[in-house]
């Protein structure tokens, strides 16, 4: 869905746009097109396994996506009792960026701390953030599971990089993509929580 002008007197147009984009979310499981409900069930399975094994879920994102990672990481821990971490300590981030470049700000500490069968949740509105893509490549090399969320163009690198589960929102608007990503993850976490699946 291309960026459009909204009537200044009708913010409901923005809400309608968000609803349309969410209802048309595109998903893949292991590179194959799937429905959102199928992807939800796959997430449920991954979360059950990571909880049972005592492994961790790691989150990476920039800007608004970073705020989302911080929020949803604690939701995953609080509601589903899964070990969940976002590497957002300012001293750590500035050290890694200064010493290794911003493209390695998450991948350097992740390489030291993440283990096989951990899960990486990688969020990038554009799908082209190099520091997020670096983490996905690292996760694959460490035999981690990857859940990715992207937007803007379906030609973006994150959507077209192999993940165990991929979500794509077809919008050029940061607000729509960011709120949409958060809504998708809330839908997954709260559906599991309400049904007490874990």
UniProtKB/TrEMBL annotation:
Gene3D superfamilies: Glucose-6-phosphate isomerase like protein, domain 1. InterPro entries: GmhA/DiaA, SIS_dom, SIS_dom_sf, SIS_GmhA/DiaA_subfam. GO terms for biological process: carbohydrate derivative metabolic process. SUPFAM superfamilies: SIS domain (SSF53697). CDD domains: SIS_GmhA. One of its GO terms (molecular function) is carbohydrate derivative binding. Residues 46-198 form the SIS domain. This is SIS domain-containing protein. The lineage of its organism: Bacteria, Pseudomonadati, Bdellovibrionota, Oligoflexia, Silvanigrellales.
């Amino acid at each position: 869905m291309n960026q459009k002008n909204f009537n200044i007197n009708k913010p409901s147009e923005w809400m309608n746009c968000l609803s349309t984009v969410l209802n048309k979310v595109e998903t893949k499981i292991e590179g194959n097109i799937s429905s959102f409900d199928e992807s939800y069930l796959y997430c449920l399975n991954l979360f059950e396994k990571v909880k049972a094994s005592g492994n961790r879920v790691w989150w990476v994102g920039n800007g608004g996506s970073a705020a989302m990672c911080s929020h949803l990481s604690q939701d995953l821990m609080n509601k589903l009792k899964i070990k969940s971490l976002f590497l957002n300590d300012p001293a750590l981030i500035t050290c890694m960026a200064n010493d290794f470049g911003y493209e390695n700000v998450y991948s350097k500490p992740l390489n030291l701390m993440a283990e096989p069968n951990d899960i990486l949740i990688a969020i990038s509105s554009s799908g082209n953030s190099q520091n997020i893509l670096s983490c996905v490549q690292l996760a694959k090399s460490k035999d981690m599971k990857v859940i990715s969320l992207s937007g803007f163009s379906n030609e973006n690198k994150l959507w077209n990089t192999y993940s165990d589960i991929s979500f794509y929102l077809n919008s050029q608007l940061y607000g729509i993509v960011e709120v949409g990503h958060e809504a998708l993850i809330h839908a997954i976490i709260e559906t599991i929580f309400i049904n007490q699946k874990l």
